[in-house]
Amino acid sequence: MSARAWSAFAAISTLWGIPYLFIKIAVDDGVPPVFLAWSRVTLAAVVLLLLSHRAGVLAPARAHLGRLALYAVIEICIPFPLIAAGEQHVSSSLAAILIAAVPMLVALLALRFDPAERATGARAVGLVVGFAGVVALVGLDVTGDGSALLCALAILLAAVGYAAGPMILSRHLTGLDPRALMAVALSFAAVILTPAALLAPPRHTPSGEALASIVVLGLLCTAMAFVLFGTLIAEVGAGRATVITYVAPIVAVALGVTVLGERPGAGAVAGLLLILAGSWLSTDGRLPPALRSLGRRRAVRPAAAGASGPAGPTDARAAGAHA
């Protein structure tokens, strides 16, 4: 992984660790899940469309409208409302932890759809260890409560979408500028979610906290994070990119404890340690190049042929994965 990939990894791990807190604040205030998803998606789409138009990078996306629409449905339209609905009955920490199953789901889907992303050796061990951490964290927390169990299943279904979406992006869409890619995908998602949002508007005006949560979710956790995620997938592939779902729950649990007063048990501590170990192994246990070459300027090779914009692969391994 390049220094650029590690920087994107750190940023996204944070940006996708905080949404669960803000989703919880909004749904507890009475904002319907579909309306919340539509609001953040629409806000992010407007911002990215303006940025993409100003940068002149929208035109190439016209040749990929079908795949972008499919990506929007799988990665955005299905997971966003499901996670918000799930958080109506489970904690923000638990929701984030359930999403940590994404890397394992990527590996399972790859057995059928993308052999280049199959997890082998240390990466496979890391995924297993990380998933064991998820099991240790959630344990019996969702058993014995029918509503919580259904919500947990909804969030796991969202995780399937999160696993499949990056594989579409990695195989077909890495040549696009990530701003244009996500601007078009989010625009499709906003249009698709509009009818459902109109049918289920808030029953009362959202509070200031809920409105602020929607703004944070739209601008930071959606617009900025998705652009960075597109860059990360182009650099390292879908399997490694989704390892952020092992780090983001740590951020989410910390926020749940400090802000919302959630109280994970002793099993959560063991689970967090296993998740950290899984993340380390899944990235081959290597220090970021920025740390290994501290004090030296790292040479950057030209982007692979056929790639454009900030999403272009920067090494032979990445280029081969996204040819």
UniProtKB/TrEMBL annotation:
<feature type="compositionally biased region" description="Low complexity">
    <location>
        <begin position="302"/>
        <end position="313"/>
    </location>
</feature>
<dbReference type="Pfam" id="PF00892">
    <property type="entry name" value="EamA"/>
</dbReference>
<feature type="transmembrane region" description="Helical">
    <location>
        <begin position="146"/>
        <end position="168"/>
    </location>
</feature>
<dbReference type="GO" id="GO:0016020">
    <property type="term" value="C:membrane"/>
</dbReference>
<feature type="transmembrane region" description="Helical">
    <location>
        <begin position="210"/>
        <end position="234"/>
    </location>
</feature>
<feature type="domain" description="EamA">
    <location>
        <begin position="151"/>
        <end position="282"/>
    </location>
</feature>
<feature type="transmembrane region" description="Helical">
    <location>
        <begin position="241"/>
        <end position="260"/>
    </location>
</feature>
<dbReference type="InterPro" id="IPR037185">
    <property type="entry name" value="EmrE-like"/>
</dbReference>
<feature type="transmembrane region" description="Helical">
    <location>
        <begin position="123"/>
        <end position="140"/>
    </location>
</feature>
<feature type="domain" description="EamA">
    <location>
        <begin position="10"/>
        <end position="137"/>
    </location>
</feature>
<feature type="region of interest" description="Disordered">
    <location>
        <begin position="302"/>
        <end position="323"/>
    </location>
</feature>
<feature type="transmembrane region" description="Helical">
    <location>
        <begin position="90"/>
        <end position="111"/>
    </location>
</feature>
<keyword id="KW-1133">Transmembrane helix</keyword>
<feature type="transmembrane region" description="Helical">
    <location>
        <begin position="65"/>
        <end position="84"/>
    </location>
</feature>
<feature type="transmembrane region" description="Helical">
    <location>
        <begin position="180"/>
        <end position="198"/>
    </location>
</feature>
<keyword id="KW-0472">Membrane</keyword>
<dbReference type="InterPro" id="IPR050638">
    <property type="entry name" value="AA-Vitamin_Transporters"/>
</dbReference>
<keyword id="KW-0812">Transmembrane</keyword>
<feature type="transmembrane region" description="Helical">
    <location>
        <begin position="266"/>
        <end position="283"/>
    </location>
</feature>
<dbReference type="InterPro" id="IPR000620">
    <property type="entry name" value="EamA_dom"/>
</dbReference>
<comment type="similarity">
    <text>Belongs to the EamA transporter family.</text>
</comment>
<feature type="transmembrane region" description="Helical">
    <location>
        <begin position="35"/>
        <end position="53"/>
    </location>
</feature>
<protein>
    <submittedName>
        <fullName>DMT family transporter</fullName>
    </submittedName>
</protein>
<feature type="transmembrane region" description="Helical">
    <location>
        <begin position="5"/>
        <end position="23"/>
    </location>
</feature>
